[in-house]
Amino acid sequence: MRPFLRGCLAAAAASLLLAGCSGGGPAPHEKPAAPVSRKPVPRPTPTWNAHPASIAALGDSITRGFDACSLLADCPEVSWVTGTRSQVDSIAGRVLSATGIAANSWNLAKSGARMSDLPDQAAAAAAKKPSLVTVLMGSNDACRDSADDMTPVADFRADFTRAMAGLHTALPKSQVFVASIPDLKRLWEVGKENPLGKQIWKLGICPSMLRDADSVSESAQTRRDAVRARVVAYNRVLKEVCAKYEHCRYDGGAVFDYRFTSDELSSWDWFHPNAQGQAQLARILYTAAFAKP
């Protein structure tokens, strides 16, 4: 017997609620019940603190300001994230007090670092207990002796995933801001117009992209396109893994999309950002980090 009819008969036998068994409709003068929504309730967007109390910067030579001030040397004072020079207007300079930059920010990046080094940098950051961790890393995974030597995407994903898991386990309330990898082909397009720069590139700077800078052969163009495609794939990994954590924010491709000019590249190697380039990174990444999602 149907549950509905069984309920009606039982009610009739007890002489109760007879009107309610007439056909399942509402009683006279009674408004129909509102339909129950079956749509999932969206999870609220996590609060993003625009005024972190401390910052730890992870990454490679870009975050260290390599070749920005002098040849073959780091220059963290012009770093886009922890720099102290006013001309750069770093993220730390924007969100921390002038006296708090040195005391409450740590540049833990290492020139030459690849994604496989990020878990160790993340562990070092966790020991500082910062309220914000920034990550800009991956260029060196694409800048290898040849395109065949580039870090496989699966390995890149595994290393980044391990670093993010470690950070969020050790610092569950800290924010993590992940910047995209620059478009290395754009840097080649700009730097190849400088005769001195091309001579310096022959010393071995990012050979997978910059070797034979003037060559228009099909093999050279195919190689450059392969490097660019790998950077695009790396950035996709950064976006996807970051999205799994509520306190992680990706820059949306802001660094990759930025069109660096020759005025923003180091006059020592025509590849790394100079102080002006670091200032541009600070500007676009501050906007990406602290603008409303």
TrEMBL record:
Species annotation: Streptomyces fildesensis
GO molecular function, one term: hydrolase activity
Documented EC number(s): 3.1.-.-
Signal peptide range: 1-24
Cross-referenced CDD domains: SGNH_hydrolase_like_1
InterPro entries linked: GDSL, PLB1, SGNH_hydro_sf
Entry protein name: SGNH/GDSL hydrolase family protein
Record SUPFAM superfamilies: SGNH hydrolase
PROSITE patterns per record: PROKAR_LIPOPROTEIN
Keywords: Hydrolase, Signal
